[in-house]
Amino acid sequence: MGAVLEKHWLDKHSETLPIWQQTAYNAFSAMIADDANTFPCIPARKGFLSNELRYGFVGDPREVHTAKELADCLRAYDLCARTSGRYTSLAIFFETPEELLKGFEVEDYRQLFWSVLNNLTTFDDKDWPADIPSDPSNHQWEFCFNGEPYFVFCATPAHQLRKSRYFPTLFMAFQPRWVFADMNDTTVFGRKLKKLIRKRIDAYDAIPGHPDLKWYGQADNYEWQQYFISDDDHSPASCPFFKMQLDLKFPPQE
Asked: Who has greater pLDDT, 127 or 246?
């Protein structure tokens, strides 16, 4: 796979895709474009409506070859991201087998999410960016692939109370860090946007916003905690990402 698609193409040709892909994209479209129950992430909604989002479909999230497909998608996206618009991100739909839909709970999906990222990084042949800390316990750490820092958003079929984190299949969105250049606590626009998003989350979800929802760069913020938000106020004690440990144990071969 590895193809990166646009909304305009999908709207015209979605019937040529496998049924599960059609179903996933249609569910995403219905969710994010719903005017009656506005999706909380304003940049994602704007990106969708203005054709700035890009889309990829990959296989079973438990399989290593799916991480390879995801790696191909991210490399393809990297080539077009900076010309796609200020609200761009890459939306990834996973072919989620029935046994996961029926048998997996939120914490099972959390483990699956981090296994996907850990498998993904084994297909990354570029060095970690010099300006991004490699230790997730540093508040300026961000997941990186192909030399590009990303905020990674995950939604699952198991989330019930936090509807903003629910999706019928396993779903991930990769937002390049540069998208947030003026969306942070150092700008008036960023502070207003943050308040509006938090207000929408409170209206959209059945419970208040998770305590881990903070802003990039704050000393008490850890991005990895926001990638996968629980359906309650639970938060893991440490980050399950282990790329740097792998690098230490298994240095690249000459």
From this structure: 127
Place of tokens 């010309």: 83
Angle at 54 between CA 50 and CA 60, to 5 degrees: 145
51: left (phi over 0), alpha (psi -120 to 50) or beta: left
The rounded distance, in Å, linking the Cα atoms of 167 and 160 is 10
* DSSP code for 156: B
What pLDDT sits at residue 244?
45
Contact 136, 241 (CB under 8 A): yes
Whether the pTM exceeds 0.85: the reply is yes
**Per-residue pLDDT tens for 22-32?**
999 999 999 99
Distances, alpha carbon 201 to alpha carbons 24, 157, 218, in Å? 22, 18, 20
CB-count burial class (<10 Å; 0-12, 13-18, 19+) for 156? buried
What is the spatial distance between Cα 151 and Cα 173, in angstroms, rounded to a whole number?
8
Q: Cβ neighbours of residue 65 under 8 Å, at least 6 residues apart?
A: 59
Q: How far apart are CA 201 and CA 75, in angstroms?
A: 31
For 139-154, what is each residue's pLDDT tens digit?
889 999 999 999 999 9
Token code pair at residue 21? 């892909």
- Helix residue spans in 81-150 (DSSP H): 98-103, 106-121
Q: Would you place residue 1 in the very low, low, confident or very high pLDDT band (cuts 50, 70, 90)?
A: low
**pLDDT value of position 2:** 67
